[in-house]
Amino acid sequence: MSAEPARITEGESYIGRSVIRPQTARLLAGRGVFTDDVTLPRMTHVAFARSPHAHARIGAIDAAAARALPGVIAVVTGEELARVCDGWVGTLAHFQGMKSATQRALAIGKASWQGEPVVAVVAESRAIAEDGVARVAVEWEPLPAVTDPETALDPATPLIHPELGDNLVFSLELKAGDVEEAFREADCVYADTFRMGRHTAVTLEPRTILADFDPTEQQLTVYHSFQAPHMMQDILARHLRLPEHHVRVICRDVGGSFGLKVHIYPDEVAACALAVLLGRPVKFTADRVESFVSDIHARDHRVRAEIAVKRDGTILGMRVDDLTGIGPYSVYPRTSAVEGNQTVRLTPSLYRFRHYAARLSVVLQNKTPMCQYRAVGHPVAFAIMEGMVDRVARELSLDPVEVRRRNLVTQDMYPHTTQTGYFFERLSLEECLDKLLELADYRRLCAERDLLRARGIYRGLGLCGFVELTTPGPAFYGVGGARISSQDGCTIRLEPSGTVTCMTGVTEQGQGTDTMIAQVVATAVGVPMEHVRVLTGDTMVTPYGGGTWASRGAGIGGEAALQSGKALKENILKVAAAILGGEPMDLDVRRGAVVDADTGEVRLPLAELGRIAYFRPDTLPKDFQSELTVTRHYVPRHQGFAFTNGIQLSHVEVDVETGFVRLLKHWVVEDCGRIINPRLVDEQLRGAIVQGIGAALWEHCVYDDQGQLLTGTLMDYLVPMAPEIPDIVVGHVETPTAYAEGGFKGAGEAGTAGAPGAVLNAVNDALAPFGARLTAQPITPGDVLRALGKL
Amino acid sequence: MDFSVEIALTVNGLPVRRRVEPRQSLADFLRYELELTGSHLGCEHGACGACTVRVDGTPVRGCLMLAVQADGSRVDTIEGIAASGELGDLQRAFAEENALQCGFCTPGMLLTAQEILRRNPRADDVEIREGLSGNYCRCTGYHAIVQAVLRAGGDRGKGQP
Q1: What pLDDT is stored for residue A3 in this prediction?
Q2: Are residues A577 and A654 in the same domain?
Q3: Do A496 and A422 lie in a common domain?
Q4: Is B41 in the A-facing interface, judged by CB distances under 8 Å?
Q5: Minimal Cα–Cα distance from B161 to chain A, Å?
Q6: Which of the residues B63, B78, B102 would you substitute to probe the A interface, choosing the one with the greatest number of A C-beta atoms within 10 Å?
């Protein structure tokens, strides 16, 4: 489709149009304002002495040499910082039995992972702060590191936090139907163990925070590269013991987030606490090397799966046992149990079979903390489910497409509740599958694959269906006691000139939130899009809201914008009727003017209405008060999540001599409900798919058995680059939700949900002639050669 | 001990004279001494390309060059190059293809794309992807960036025999 400029000449709606993001102009001119670009008077810089050990007691700290360095302003230890900053525990009440230890901004007594911040050095420049860190001497007493989740619960394994009694954070058993009976009735049972490696988000802009404290007003102002400013406001207020309304969090341009910038990091809280302690601005910008040991990591699952099927490929039941290692702390406040919980709950959800049993064990390790990253749990769940489906097809010599068709939740089953209790209002699983096969010309590719095999060229095709959990209501975090808003607001003000200023609680990190909100508001109010200005990411200005995560921007922020826009239009029409006489219902707002609803004849430009309402209200009836600023809120009330769905296809070629996997092409058909901006949705899908591909083939946080990260630079940790990434073809199905007027659902994570499974299945398809099969990610050339028996 | 060195260079067409520490990178010098914050620091070890600037007409990684090495050079950053209008068609193509999301990699991406097209306005998909291989983008998956460079190159190629 071709892009359109923001100006609209025909039709009244911007919904469904690929308008260009107005905000890109300044980013393309180098005029973005990222947090590290902000400087304040008397600003200082902090760097951290981090633990070089995965697990060690902290002995004496000698900071004299650091303090003596010219330009060093303060050297602060954990005990000293604790005087102004309370620790935290990352648990949620609705995860029964969940436990974690108290985490602090700077470690006290013991460090629990390589990279944990221990001592803060504040200086006039970042370089001097780092010089200071090099002069801090800590007496370390190394302790045995717990690195392998498989043995984390063994009695012989040391306890990371003795006060917890064991290394278990959370466990869960799910049972649906009679899984034992299903396995007894099965013609065939297949079992596999999947290993989904640890990786991390690598936002190109590292985590950055700039905190400024004015002791005279007890006012903390924080510039933060972050997704959820109101959540940060709440947490800083509580843990730094400040009144909530004296904490302001401002998120300017955010250089990528992907779920990484929605968690509480000790070094960021430390920077804020140091600002309070020193009464002047403190900036912390992570460098890439410390990002690798301090940003959250993700995945790290070992999943045993068993599937019970009939000879025709009908799935009767499934058992899943997921073991995941999360580092030494469950991350605050969302916890590190959500990923595993979603993995075991999502795994069977595409299919009709009712007998399912799952076990989840979330255990501690002395590695960097693990928490939610784009598509939380989904890529693991669907790589396993779709991997098992392809295993069934291979073992029984069935067509992988037909095995899926035989088992999918069908169009006549909605509304549908899954084995694990998820509610699907309406999905389009079969329609997406059909559309994908057509879009990719799947049968031709299969025929080509078979022909090429005869010539010694090994290509493979891998399907991976998925659902995506979007637009979460309060059941996600609120009920567990986390002060994370599931509702969002949108305030819209008609300016005297007839233009519109809009403030929203959802936030922008490059997705195009601003543009999407502007499209909805322009449509709802009836003004040209270039007359709408959207402001996000300032807790003192925007309505209270959750921010952007869990693919909630369109579903929640979009609906709030729609309702707010409609309310403003209603108020505009009341003012117009007061000026013009007659009834509001006979008027409408179109293209920035009040018009006759029937004929479309312009009666009053909004600029004239604004002039009268703001500057000459004396000319209006005495009993009339205009209200040209409105706020509306929205929270999903009728379902826990608005599920979306789709399916991906990966086409690869495997060099069986070198083990290298070449990506030839990738397709996705996805259904995120009513689409506001097709191009933005396409680009969300493509970007997310490439993150999933990275996890499937390259990205890996590799540790040695001492808990030392071996892939700590961008030379060792492989991020997808342009040459190895194939073209990605995107198709859409639109099934709007009926629970919200706009019909919008989320689209931010669907690509990552299905890509790893699609790539894994494609590689295995290519290796099928050799009887070889892989069940671990990332897939390295060495893994391929080992599977082929060549290594 | 003060090891600082005086350097004189031309930045975005204007003469600049400063004392700098020998250890300061060109990227840090531009960002923190001259407040030219359009060049970004994504890795500071030469992998990501977000700090790309031009020194005497050649794209370099600002994080791998010291400010003192730029003494006597002509340095151009995204701020100056964008203001000159040189990137107009590329910027338009990037906006139209949505070839940027967060925008953090974008200044480096634009300068690299300009270099690819300077060498060959008719660069094809493979050549563009190879040319962009030193610039990481974590948001787009590269597809839209390649499309944008192809589009701008196609338009430039039209004017040539």
Answers
A1: 43
A2: no
A3: no
A4: yes
A5: 27
A6: B102
Compute the average pLDDT of residues A360-386.
98
Q: Is residue A153 part of a domain?
A: no
Q: For strand A188-200 and strand A776-777, is the pairing parallel, antiparallel, or unpaired?
A: parallel
Residue A673: closest CA among A348, A425, A343:
A425
Domains and CATH numbers, chain B: 5-82 (3.10.20.30), 86-158 (1.10.150.120)
Mean pLDDT of chain A: 97
Distance from CA of B10 to the nearest CA of A (A): 19
Residue written as token pair 């088992």:
A407
- Residues of B with CB below 8 A from A714's CB? 43, 45, 47-48, 136
* Helix, strand, or coil (residue A604): strand
Q: Tell me if chain A has a CB within 8 Å of the CB of B136.
A: yes
CA B23 to chain A, closest CA, distance in angstroms equals 9
| Helical axes A229-239 vs A266-278, angle rounded to 10° | 60
Per CB-CB distance under 8 Å, the chain A contacts of B38 are 29-32
Calculate the alpha carbon distances from A775 to A302, A312, A391, A713 in Å: 10, 24, 11, 27
CB B59 within 8 A of CB B52: yes
Q: Among A294, A317, A346, where does a domain finish?
A: A294
Do A603 and A693 belong to one domain?
no
> Do residues A654 and A610 both lie within one domain?
no
Judge if A580 and A555 occupy the same domain: yes
Token readout for A542 is 């925007």
Comparing CB atoms, the residue among A28, A256, A723 nearest residue B110 is A28
Among the three residues A294, A320, A353, which one is the final residue of a domain in this structure? A294
In a domain, A379, yes or no: yes
Task: Provide the ipTM.
Answer: 0.97
**Is residue A502 within 8 Å of residue A508, measured between CB atoms?**
no
Cα angle vertex A776, ends A770, A777, to 5°? 115
Determine the pLDDT at residue A754: 98
- The alpha-carbon gap from B160 to the nearest alpha carbon of chain A, in Å, equals 25
3-class DSSP string for A346-387:
HCCCCECCCEEEEEEEEECCCCCCECCCCCCCHHHHHHHHHH
**Encoded tokens for A161:** 């936090």
**Residue B80 corresponds to which tokens in the numbers above?**
């100056």
Listed in order, strand segments (DSSP E) in A441-504 are 458-470, 488-494, 500-504
Nearest CA in chain A to B85: A29
Residue A84 domain-assigned (yes or no)? yes
Q: Which of B43, B95, B130 sits opposite A288 (nearest CB)?
A: B43
Query: Does the pLDDT value for residue A157 go beyond 80?
Result: yes
Does A714 fall in a domain? yes
- Spell out the residues 6+ positions from residue A687 whose beta carbon is closer than 8 angstroms to its own: A751, B101, B138, B139, B140, B141
Model confidence over A618-670: pLDDT tens digits?
999 999 999 999 999 999 999 999 999 999 999 999 999 999 999 999 999 99
Query: In angstroms, what separates the C-alpha of B76 from chain A's closest C-alpha?
Result: 12
Instruction: Kindly report the three-state secondary structure assignment for every residue of A17-28.
Output: CCECCCCHHHHH
> What's the domain range around A595?
24-32+487-634
* A367 and A420 part of one domain: yes
Token pair, residue A256, equals 């990528």
Q: Are residues A331 and A357 in the same domain?
A: yes
Residues of chain A contacting B114 with CB distance shorter than 8 Å = none
Give the count of domains, chain A: 3
* B132 interfaces chain A, CB cutoff of 8 Å: yes
